[in-house]
Amino acid sequence: MNTPKKAPRNARTIARTNTPGQRGARLLLPLASVAALAAAQVQAQESVPTVPAQPPQATLERVEIRASRPDESHERRQATAAKTVIGREELERQGDATVTEVLKRQPGVTLDGRPGRGGNPRLRGLGGGYTQILINGERLPMGMSLDALTPGQVERIEITRGPTAETGAQAVAGTIDIVLREDVRQRLNDLHLSLGRDDGRWQPGLSWTRAEQIEDLSYNLSVHLRESRSDDGSLLRTVETTQADGQLALDQDRVDESRSLRRSVHAGGRVQWRLGAGESFALMPFLLRSENVSAGRRTLLTRAGSADYAQADTSGESGFSLARLNAQWQTRLEGGLRLELRAGATGSRSDGSSRRTEADAAGSPLRRIDEERDGRDRWLSTGGKASRPLVEGRHLLALGWELESGRRDESRSTLQTEADGSTRVLDGDFGDTLQSRSRRASLWIQDEWTPTPQWSIQAGLRHERIDTRGSTGIAGQAEAVNRSRVTAPMLHAVYRLEEGGRSLIRAGLTRSYKAPTLAQMIARSTRANGSNLEINPDRGGNPDLRPELATGLDLAWEQHLAQGGVFSVGVFERRIDDLIRNQVALENTGDAALRWVSRPQNIGRARSRGLELEAKARAAELAALIAPPAEGAAPLPAVDLRANLSVYRSRVESLSGPDNRLDNQPGWSAGAGADWRVRGTPLTLGASVSFTPGYAVQLDASRRATVDTRQVIDAYALWTFAPDLKLRVSASNLAARDSVSTTTVDGATTRQTATTWGRSSTAWAVRLEMKL
């Protein structure tokens, strides 16, 4: 018998001979394919002249089976660690412009930016390092925002509610892994043209995706061009009163109006060669360039107290460039052993300049401040993974390693020119240069075990070591050094109530951590923008910070429906040791007078716990669960429904209540949405709403912050002219409401209050989607 070569991932070629006695797997060939081949052979024999009989020979038949990736519901059901998968269908459903717009509608995900203005995603209300963000399994490059990625570049998004040994232990709240387009399964040549309008400004965009497979070579390429214009505005009111008699010491409004133009282009892709049976090599480049030009005016309305100026005109330019190249080699050896090696290099640069011309109330120039800044990052990474099934496939043992090394160089200069022409260099940064180096090494092992058809267990252990060094270039100042070592065991388990059933119970017991950021560790201070007050302090680093360590427990019940729906109820708890929080104190910074400086400190222990509810189903399937449809009843509309509710409670033990919660974690968040395919028409309608109520946080013994309610309503209409031509109209942030936040400081002699109002608007977009 001839041994077939390894088939491509998306097509398996099975060769067999027509000799008697064939048994085993060949009997499992699809009967329809065998019957079709037999019928074709009979027809061929009837249509050709009779030829002399030939000795019987073995003939080779070719049967090609196309395999597709399991759907998102199946992947979620089969995963041992709790995971949500967002596939291509959901990525394209709303016509979102960025990946963050997709994430804001997911259960338990909130954004820290203003409504309708994007922001950093947070799982379980926890950001700032508690939520791990990955791209293709690697950490997000420094300086890069998820707003730079479009859904067209993404194959899928995986949201894991806890850490695993393979994805990393820096995931106290969980991990969001954005997987870019992978090896091609079908030929693509898609073009999307979009035109949006936000706050009266036009936003054009273009996306092109090309993918093809040519024998053993497959590639995909995506290019995205975007231009956005925005008018922005905010109001900051600062009030300072004396504690003794309530007299006003300062009452000031700072009004900022700005207009900006941003252009960006990013391209990415994957080129993969199949080198043989089970062996492949891939290159994954990614390029990004964005430029921003802005101009604005700041006005100070001072009713009590004093100010250095009355108004200021500002302008600036900034740019960000990033180039990234990853390589991956995979092979499969005898016994099911799989090896994977990968390496990558990333380089980025951010540069910019700004000008501010300050004037008095009569408009006479007082001074001009010019600032130039430049930052460069260079990172090298490598890693490997070996996995092998054991005990007749019921064990999958994997172990791996990662090594990452990087350097950052940053410079900034600020020059102040007075009205009389005299100049001086401002010492606002306490040093004009910053150099830092970081190295991270990790080893991990993970075992997937299925002892019975109803039980699945994943056990893992990960050890990480991070070394960071930095210097500010100031003579006599020692180099800051921070070293941390963390060993994190993790255990996840799934119990299926029935063998092969759709009802299951999940549990997880994990150790995770949050490493201090570079900005938190390096002892470089930055002057406050405006008067130095306890409510508006300078900022500095702390090289002696320790990582936050978290012990986590997760429990959940899931009921999966036949048509992809799911009902889920889960609870979680995290106990965090060595919590990091900024503390404000008077310090001697070299000036004649002491200044208020905010520095991060390890302040003790905190706890966070929560309840998470999720429901997703088709209307007809949901109605059938409640009551079987009557015979002859009209079918229900083709509507997909989804809803989620998350409730959070947290407490910082070193602070007295009330509201001594973790910073930026709301009390709860909720979301709902529906998609309606209008029967008999090529029209699909959809809408979603997310809601986060206002909350208050006790930051320390004297500082308290409040955040206003956030709600975002999105809607879209999709008209399908043909499978290759669609028109989409969408609206984001309907019923827009401004954001309001307040910080209050109760000092020994004064109370200071700063309230910020941020403007919000509705964004409209029209997108033409074509398959060429």
TrEMBL record:
<dbReference type="GO" id="GO:0009279">
    <property type="term" value="C:cell outer membrane"/>
</dbReference>
<keyword id="KW-0998">Cell outer membrane</keyword>
<dbReference type="GO" id="GO:0044718">
    <property type="term" value="P:siderophore transmembrane transport"/>
</dbReference>
<feature type="region of interest" description="Disordered">
    <location>
        <begin position="343"/>
        <end position="385"/>
    </location>
</feature>
<keyword id="KW-0732">Signal</keyword>
<feature type="signal peptide">
    <location>
        <begin position="1"/>
        <end position="44"/>
    </location>
</feature>
<dbReference type="Pfam" id="PF07715">
    <property type="entry name" value="Plug"/>
</dbReference>
<feature type="compositionally biased region" description="Basic and acidic residues">
    <location>
        <begin position="367"/>
        <end position="379"/>
    </location>
</feature>
<dbReference type="Pfam" id="PF00593">
    <property type="entry name" value="TonB_dep_Rec_b-barrel"/>
</dbReference>
<keyword id="KW-1134">Transmembrane beta strand</keyword>
<feature type="domain" description="TonB-dependent receptor plug">
    <location>
        <begin position="77"/>
        <end position="175"/>
    </location>
</feature>
<dbReference type="InterPro" id="IPR000531">
    <property type="entry name" value="Beta-barrel_TonB"/>
</dbReference>
<comment type="similarity">
    <text>Belongs to the TonB-dependent receptor family.</text>
</comment>
<feature type="region of interest" description="Disordered">
    <location>
        <begin position="1"/>
        <end position="22"/>
    </location>
</feature>
<dbReference type="GO" id="GO:0015344">
    <property type="term" value="F:siderophore uptake transmembrane transporter activity"/>
</dbReference>
<feature type="region of interest" description="Disordered">
    <location>
        <begin position="408"/>
        <end position="431"/>
    </location>
</feature>
<dbReference type="InterPro" id="IPR039426">
    <property type="entry name" value="TonB-dep_rcpt-like"/>
</dbReference>
<keyword id="KW-0798">TonB box</keyword>
<keyword id="KW-0813">Transport</keyword>
<dbReference type="InterPro" id="IPR037066">
    <property type="entry name" value="Plug_dom_sf"/>
</dbReference>
<keyword id="KW-0675">Receptor</keyword>
<dbReference type="InterPro" id="IPR036942">
    <property type="entry name" value="Beta-barrel_TonB_sf"/>
</dbReference>
<feature type="domain" description="TonB-dependent receptor-like beta-barrel">
    <location>
        <begin position="299"/>
        <end position="734"/>
    </location>
</feature>
<protein>
    <recommendedName>
        <fullName>TonB-dependent receptor</fullName>
    </recommendedName>
</protein>
<dbReference type="InterPro" id="IPR012910">
    <property type="entry name" value="Plug_dom"/>
</dbReference>
<keyword id="KW-0812">Transmembrane</keyword>
<keyword id="KW-0472">Membrane</keyword>
